[in-house]
Amino acid sequence: MGNPLLRAVAKTVPAEVIRSRSFQQFCDDLLESMFEHDGSGLAAPQVFESVRVVVFSFEGGDPIFLINPVVTPISDETREGYEGCLSVPGLRGKVTRWLDIRVDGLNREGKPFAFEAHGWPARIVQHEVDHLDGVLYVDKAAPGSLAFLPEYRRFGPPIPLPKGHDEDEESDEEGADDEE
Ligand code: NI
Predict the structure, then answer these.
(1) CATH class label, 4-174
(2) pLDDT for 111-140, tens place per residue?
(3) Which residue among the candidates 80, 83, 128, 169 is catalytic per the annotation?
(4) Is 167 a catalytic residue?
(5) What is the pLDDT of residue 74?
(6) pTM of the prediction?
(7) CA dihedral defined by 106, 88, 1, 137, rounded to 10 degrees?
């Protein structure tokens, strides 16, 4: 946090660049950084390349690259959940996100693709795509919800999640150790 590139609006990647060797190498490097830091997602600005590229992995599944992604909510429902970020190490905070989204973008081969995501995967995608617009989750975190990770682990969330969010709490616990 604090590097101006994390606050910039990242540049759209021209389609003709995607298949180039240097861009493919960049994708490999981004993925390696994500694994190195044990993250569930990583956006290019986090490795100080201001381009619209993110990679993420749902529950240890195959990594998915998204180039020039666009997120559209497909329901009015939102959920609160705790997030962390590799660019803001050692903190957790509560953020409200869309529960159901559609994602459009280009894949690593430069082909357009789209998918729907719900719950935790939808949260990861929204967190990563925010990075492309210079937005960090701490900007959106509920006042009073930030906690240092050791304390978060010891005491739990500073503001308990509302009742009726059991399903999300479960997935949040699972993801709350990851940084994105
Ligand atoms: Ni992040």
Answers:
(1) alpha beta
(2) 999 999 999 999 999 999 999 999 999 999
(3) 128
(4) no
(5) 98
(6) 0.90
(7) 60
